[in-house]
phosphoenolpyruvate--protein phosphotransferase
Amino acid sequence: EAEAQARERALPARTRDGRSVAAAANVNTPDQVPFALDQGAEGVGLMRTEFLFLERGETPSEDEQAETYAAMMRALGGRPLIVRALDIGGDKQVAHLNLPREENPFLGVRGARLLLRRPDLIEPQLRALYRTARDLVPAGAPTGKDAPLSIMMPMITSVPEVLAWRETCERIRAEIGAPPVPLGIMIEVPAAAIQADALARHCDFFSVGTNDLTQYTLAIDRQNPELAPEADSLHPAVLRLIRLTCEGAARHGRFVGVCGGLAGDPFGACLLAGLGVDELSMTPRDLPGVKARLRASSFIALRDLAARACAQADAAGVRALDGDGTERSA
Ligand code: PEP
Ligand code: MG
């Protein structure tokens, strides 16, 4: 029985009519990797590196960071790993960085904005990552979606930010003598989703952060308990922005992952697959349910489901589409 379940978890998330969606896990430390693999993860779609900085009283050195990234890669044995550069600000404050207090931290110097202002934070991290690539990415390793190591930047809102980010990465890569590493960006601000076609020109992939995309689209603080029921990632406005993101990426042949909470909800995952998302990355324990649901669905029906969801007036209308069986009928 247990063995049958383990076999089932290892099956790919392929719809009945043959559309495969990569199933990945959000994992921050190497010791969590075995559990994620056991749950059916095919890689890590989001390694949040804030945790290296938050759980201790000082900034981790370049060497320490390189050790952690190398340990992650070794634990994954060549499966894809996407490491997100430090995303500080908003709800993630780091006392020892002594950053100025802001009136509205979620709308302040957060994510990419902070990193582009603080070379002392991003450069050691990038050096650690490119050293890992130099030492552990074998010649002839896959590039693109299956690359064993990719790097992404949080909270991007504009093309100039992406250009500055690429330039920094390229300079450090050349200094280290590392092979090229796919460079992606998080899509978690409406401006980025709306301009996805322009941004896709300058990066290798997108990863949609539905937690922040929902917060910024609906203007609801993601931590406000009073408004939690309304902070619904199934809001059609959020889904339409994800649709725009997929369309912009497709125009330049880039792949789209989703690493926010919506990816781990079986119905949400169906909608995302129907919108054309290539990879879903989630909390490891959500993987079996999402994979089973996608395997029971047909992609043609999911595309139709996603189109109808985007046309709903509100999140309740989208939720009402769940369980009417349509995504299962071919
Ligand atoms: C998101 O915003 O959806 C996301 C994945 O990033 P984080 O939750 O770390 O802000
Ligand atoms: Mg986010």
